[in-house]
Amino acid sequence: MSGLADLLSNTWGLILVVVFFCGAIFFHELGHFLAAKWRGLKIERFSIGFGPRLFGWKGKDGVDYRVSLLPLGGYVALPQLADMRLIEGESETPSDKLPPIGYWDKMIVAVAGPAFNVILATFLAIIVWIVGFPSSVQMQSRTIGYVFPTLTIDEDVTVLGPAAQAGLKAGDEILEIDGKEVDNWSDITKYIVTGSGRDSLDNPEVILKIRRGDEIMDVNVSPELNEINARSGKQIRAIGIYPGSPLPLGWINPNSPAEKAGLKVGDIVETANGKRVYSTPDLNDIIEPMGGKEVVLGIVRDGKTMDITVVPEVVPVTKALLQLTESNSESPAVWEFLPKYLDENAEETSLTAKANIVVFDAPISGKYHEMLPVGAVISKVNGQPVDSLETLQAALAADQGETTEIAFTRKGVEGVASLDGSFKEEIIPPTTRTLIGFSVDPGTVITYPNPVSQVRDQIEMTFLFIGSLLSPNSDVGINQLSGPVGIGRVLHTFSLQDLRLAIWFSVLLNINLAILNLMPIPVLDGGHMTIATITRIIGKAPPINVVGAIQGAVMLMLFGLMFYVMFNDSMDWLGDHEAEQNYLRDKEYQIPVNFSGKQ
């Protein structure tokens, strides 16, 4: 049944992608269509998509209503408005055979498409205003909950946290970023990512105005470029901070120190050992070194403040691993082997329990690449059967000779890896953490932003991004643009999470579409308006061959940009898929937390 539920859920998500994405395009073209009808222009085609016709019908009004092959937008073929043969195909009636139209006819028809997107955005914003916008409590905060001492900016590089280096602290309230007032964590993220500040050495810089206690101060922070997708290489500015929020307890683990100490669901943790805590990571930093020692938690229960003493317990949170490392090499090949226990009741950290031994990590380059791949199940080592970490270690530790033969099965196919040279095997003990045994659930807040503020905020966001894209001082590049693939993925994700998120995102989508189409670029609506205005000012139309050449060049650049963006979107998709697979793989390494129940 879960498979059927997933199928239905994904189908519903895809339907909503079509409705919201194609709906934005349809409404845009409908604006042009209705304005052209009103102003008496000849309309030849109404197309969703570009290129060859897939299907459609010929209306009684003579218009060819169609869906075309390339889902990169749409158009209404209006030969009196502009010569767009390169994009829309040959016209049935040459424009010089049709009566000319006036300046205001052109302006009204051109602006009608973006205007209809704004109308649709406003309608969707009204829906969001009525049904509400779901958000986490953290995203409504502007208080720093945690300052990361280090920041991992890609798979191989970890640096000191920029915020920590600048002296920011948990509890600091961010008031402004680069002179712009912030209302919530979304604003904070937005202004950091799109910032274009630089210091005297041309390094990225952001200026935060904060409140610390009764003092207001400016803090200069030097963001790092943080890789957010390994495949596309997409990077954004980051300073290494986490939002603060109240810490209400949402779950108490059985037999845990929290249960023994009398903590209850709904208790709100405010302090630990007398220190104010602003987030779960902030609390964890205090608890981690306190295994077996008393920690005094200041909590609020039913409006009353009280102290509860609890003794955190050090517990394993992962399985043990066996690591096999190539000896006598400057860049040694390394494998990690993970047990998948056959008995579901087996001790999760056991070395002797019967298990399928699976390759958990393997070299990604060099002569051993793909020789013994991730996911392979080990059956024998040098002829010795392997059915536990203990037997694997014993087989590898035995006299190997010059070659170690490892027999395995992967996806139903048997294979043998012949590893030349000497190797060292080592059991990596389970990772442990010091825990009290509860989870924090800050909860979800539903806001009801009025339609005007929604539309205004999305207009601001669009211009902010365009400004950063054009600024030589920002770190926003064209590789951070999203096309149909990226937009579709976001809509699909939001549709599966909460329909209200998809509606909210569609407000941004329509505002974005309206503003971009109004830019004074040939082939866009703003380009038509610009040419019409130039014609009105100079008293004659620019030479049609010049306009055609410019439109052709711009169209080639736009389609080139579109395909580049779609390629990047695809790389993002692949990178996100790989990250998801790594997450699922890492879950095999993790084990449920089991407390001893001892006080």
From TrEMBL:
CDD domains: cpPDZ_EcRseP-like (cd23081), S2P-M50_PDZ_RseP-like (cd06163). GO terms for biological process: proteolysis. InterPro entries: PDZ, PDZ_6, PDZ_sf, Pept_M50_Zn, Peptidase_M50. Its main location: membrane. It is found in: Membrane. One of its GO terms (cellular component) is membrane. Its cofactor is Zn(2+). The chain crosses the membrane at residues 12-35, 107-132, 501-524, 544-567. Signal peptide: none annotated. It is a multi-pass membrane protein. One of its GO terms (molecular function) is metalloendopeptidase activity. Residues 161-184 form the PDZ domain. Keywords: Hydrolase, Membrane, Metalloprotease, Protease, Transmembrane, Transmembrane helix, Zinc. The keyword Transmembrane helix applies. Belongs to the peptidase M50B family. NCBIfam families: RIP metalloprotease RseP. This is RIP metalloprotease RseP. It comes from Rubellicoccus peritrichatus.
